[in-house]
Amino acid sequence: MAKSQRRELVSSHNNKTIIADHTKRIMHRDIERQRRQEMTHLCTSLRNLLPLEYIKGKRAVSDHVQEAVNYIKDLEKNIEELGIKRDELKNLSNLRVLGSNRETSNNCAPICEVIVRSCLVGVEVVIISDFEEQFVLSRMMQVLLKEGLNVISCVSAKVNQRLMHTILSEVGGLRCIDTMELKKKLMETI
Q: What is the extent of the structural domain holding 44?
């Protein structure tokens, strides 16, 4: 081979190498530009997801990432606290259900306290119940009417998270009322 042909081969080989290197640089630059654009987009999205108090006064991307970490930790802490509260409320609810089932099945503790006493006009009935427990007051009045008592007044009040009903009734005629028997009948209606 002649020297001129060798030069052309070397020259064309150098040109191909230069073109390949140039193409690699262009590709690398484009890939890097695309990567930076994607990172900018992701950082903008992150900044938009964070509450204002976490990014206020912070401009650097590293600060935004750190505040995102802080925000996630705060959210995790709130989730744990709410989970604990939920479990406590479930346990409290279950205890109330168990307690009310025991009361109704065993009749250990009455849901209401009934006091019957004689007064000048006739009979005074005081019913004290838990605020959550409900009974029908009209049933109590029906028992009083069946016993021959005329209801004069009924006053209800909330005292220390309990309901207190005071029913004042008069005795018709010259009848004598057995307060213990009346209390028993009233307790049976609850």
A: 3-49
For residue 89, is it within any domain? no
User: Cα 3 from chain centroid?
Assistant: 89
What CATH number should be reported for the domain holding residue 185? 3.30.70.260
Taking CA atoms, 81 is separated from 72, 73, 89, 103, 149, in Å, by 14, 12, 12, 33, 56
Q: Can you give the pLDDT of all 190 residues of the chain as single tens digits?
A: 555 555 565 566 677 788 888 899 999 999 999 999 999 999 999 999 999 888 888 888 899 999 999 999 999 999 999 988 888 877 776 665 555 544 444 444 446 788 898 888 788 999 888 766 666 788 888 888 888 888 899 998 888 778 888 999 988 766 777 888 888 888 888 7
Q: What is the pTM of this model?
A: 0.41
